[in-house]
Amino acid sequence: MEFKEKRVLISGATGGMGYEIAKLLSKEDCKLALFARRGDRLKEIADELTYDKTRCIYKKCDVSKRDDIRDAVSFMVKEFGGIDAAILTAGVLIPNPIQTFDSSIIKKSIEINFMGIVYFIEYILPIMKKQRSGMIAAISTLPDKRGVPGWGAYGASKAAVSWLMESLRAEAKQRYNISIVTIKPGSVETPMIEDYHRTGAVSARRAAEIIINGLKKEKKVIQFPLSQVLLVRIQDLLPPFAYDLIPVDVAKGEGYPEVDED
Q1: In angstroms, rounded to a whole number, what is the distance separating the alpha carbons of residues 204 and 18?
Q2: Residue range 113-138: mean pLDDT, rounded
Q3: Could you say which of 58, 119, 154, 256 is catalytic?
Q4: Is residue 154 among the annotated active site residues?
Q5: How many helical (H) and strand (E) elements, i.e. helices and strands, does the chain have?
Q6: pLDDT (tens digit, 9 = 90+) per residue, 82-106?
Q7: Contact present, 17 and 62 (Cβ < 8 Å)
Q8: Residue 165's closest CA among 151, 146, 179, 177?
């Protein structure tokens, strides 16, 4: 998809990838609708990105609340008359090691990472179906087939995103000309990963560049970085007994705060 003069919705617009995606798209002469929980930060970003032929609107939105998402989508349609593309990046990453296993963490992860996307799709689809065009892209995760010790809540919520997007893809395209795109990032530089040089994480800026480039090329699945893609796919092939032997030091859960990508 070429983004010039397109009406683009971005959730999680104050977070790392969401913000960088908005910055890149602001140079494409498109209309941006930005949504996130931090209203004050949203205003700053909207003021920063509104120039030349780019128009930027914003509204505070908690993606765990269905009514907030309904109001956000209605607000965008009222202002722009429709939605050509939605890039759903809002999310939360909370460690949940077995030592302190807590169902409330899983519930929160599902509500934000999965149900937030479900609600957006629920309200966006009727608009795009009527237009008979559009694109919906959502953030999943690269390791979406095998669990990572200590990160069960995050992984489960993101694996659900992958399954949902895969399930919708063929029907949406064939029936309504709507493109469904799954974005599967590996490690992206955030406050969660302080030693990103060691872990091979890419910067949020670089992640945004890869995502926008993939969307322009109309890729159905965008996954990166390549080194981690290869490693994860090899891990996917391991038999269960071998996978049970992987180090679990990462599951200590010490010094890993809850991090929002909103």
Answers
A1: 9
A2: 99
A3: 154
A4: yes
A5: 10, 9
A6: 999 999 999 999 999 999 999 999 9
A7: no
A8: 179
**Count of CB atoms situated within 10 Å of the CB of 82:** 15
Which contacts (CB < 8 Å, 24+ apart) does range 157-160 have? 157/106, 157/109, 157/110, 157/112, 157/113, 157/114, 158/91, 158/113, 158/114, 160/110, 160/113, 160/114
Question: Worst-scoring range by mean pLDDT, 89-98, 199-208, 237-246?
Answer: 237-246
Question: Sign of the C-alpha dihedral, residues 89, 14, 128, 124?
Answer: positive
Residue 105 near residue 155, CB atoms below 8 Å: no
Instruction: List, in order of start, the domains of the chain with CATH numbers.
Output: 7-261 (3.40.50.720)
Q: Is the pTM of this model over 0.90?
A: yes
Give just the sign of the alpha carbon dihedral 156, 118, 213, 56. negative
- What average pLDDT does the structure give for the chain? 91
Cα separation of 59 and 72, whole Å? 7
Taking residue 46's Cβ as centre, other Cβ atoms within 10 Å add up to 20
Looking at residue 235, what is its pLDDT?
86
Show Cβ contacts of residue 251 under 8 Å, excluding neighbours closer than 6 positions. 95, 97, 98, 149, 150, 151
d(CA 140, CA 67): 23
Residue type, 219: K
Gyration radius of the chain over CA positions = 18
Sequence-distant (6+) residues with CB within 8 A of 190 are 16, 93, 204, 259, 261
Identify the helix (H) or strand (E) that includes residue 211. Answer: helix 204-216
Phi, psi of 228 (to 5 degrees): -75, -30
Q: 194 CB contacts (<8 Å, ≥6 apart)?
A: none
Q: How far apart are CA 112 and CA 190, in angstroms?
A: 18
